[in-house]
C-alpha cells in the first residue's frame, strides 16, 4: 500500500483539497465524474445563489430602475448562477469574473459569494488573498455604481465587506479542516504501516530465536545418534552388551530429541510470558546432567564447576552458559572424537560468569563433518545480547577453545 492509494494525500491534493462539492479536477484538467453528493451540493449552491439573485432583482425593481435594466439584471444573474456549475474547473477565473460582474449587476452577488467561498476552499492562501482583496474593492464599489435608495452607502459597503470576509474565512476554515483530516489519515496510514513492519520484524526475530534454540538442542542429540550409529556400523562384531548399550543410547537420544523439539514448538502455543515456568529451558543447575550424558556417550569430559550455588545464577545467564557448554561439547564430539574435553565454569555475583570449553587436537585424521559454523555465530550473538562476550578459535597446540563471559549482577 502506497500514498498513491490515497490520492487526497498527494501534495497536489494538499495544495488544492476537495471543495464542499467534491473532488477537484484532475491535473489534466478533465473533471472527474460527478457523484450523487456532487449533484446535491451543486444544486444547493445554485439554489442559494438564485435565491439571493431574486431578492436583489426585487430590490432593483423597487428602486425604480428601468424595465430593460431589470430584465438585463435578471439575465445576467441567471447566467451567473448557471456558471457555478463549472466552478470546479475554473474556481479562480470564475470568482474574478463574477465579482466584476456583480459591480454592475447586483443580481450576480449571490453567485459571486458562492464562487468566492469555493475558491477559498480549493486554493491556497495567496490566490485567495488576492481575489479576496478584489472582492473587497468590488463590494465597496457596488453601492456607488448601483446605489440602493433604502440603504446608505456606508451600511451597504460595510455589509458587503463583512460578507466577503465571512465567505473567505469560512472557506479557509473548511480547507484547514480538510487538510487536518488528510494529515490525520496519512498519520494513521503511516502508523498502520509501521505497525505491520514491527509485527513482521517481531515474527522474524521469533523465527530466528526458535531456529537458534532448535539448533542448540537438536545438534547435541543428533551428534550422539551419529556417534553411536557409526560405532555400530564399524563394529558389527561388538559384544552384545555393548551393542545393546549403544542401541539404548540411540533410542534415548532420539526420544529426547523429539521431546525437546516438541517442547520448543509448544512454546509457540503457550500463552503468557515466554520466560514463565511453562517454558522448558535448562539452567546452570542442569549442566551436570549434560556432562553426564556426554560421558555416557563415550566422551572423556573433565568438569570443573567453581560456582558454589548454581541455583543462584540468573535464569537467563544460566541458560546462555548451558547452551555455550552444550555447543562446545557438540563441536568437540564432531571434530575431535576421543579427545578429553575440559568444561570450566567460574564466577560469582558482581564478577560475572565465565564458561570455557577446551579440547585438544584429535588423535588421528577426522573425516568431513557436516556443519556450517552457525552454532558459534548464534552463540556469539546470544552472549552479546546478554551483555557479555564470547571468543572461540584454535589453540596453539591445534585444539579448540570456546570461552565466554556473562554478566552476573551482585
UniProtKB/TrEMBL annotation:
Its EC number is 2.7.13.3. GO terms for cellular component: membrane. The keyword Chaperone does not apply. GO terms for molecular function: ATP binding; phosphorelay sensor kinase activity; protein dimerization activity. InterPro entries: HATPase_C_sf, Sensor_HK_TwoCompSys, Sig_transdc_His_kin_sub3_dim/P. Residues 11-34 are annotated as: Disordered. It catalyses: ATP + protein L-histidine = ADP + protein N-phospho-L-histidine. Gene3D superfamilies: 1.20.5.1930, Histidine kinase-like ATPase, C-terminal domain. It is an enzyme of class 2 (transferase). Keywords: ATP-binding, Kinase, Membrane, Nucleotide-binding, Phosphoprotein, Transferase, Transmembrane, Transmembrane helix, Two-component regulatory system. The chain crosses the membrane at residues 92-121, 128-145, 151-173. Residues 20-30 have a biased composition (Pro residues). Pfam families: HisKA_3 (PF07730). The keyword Oxidoreductase does not apply. This is histidine kinase. It comes from Streptomyces genisteinicus. Residues 207-272 form the Signal transduction histidine kinase subgroup 3 dimerisation and phosphoacceptor domain.
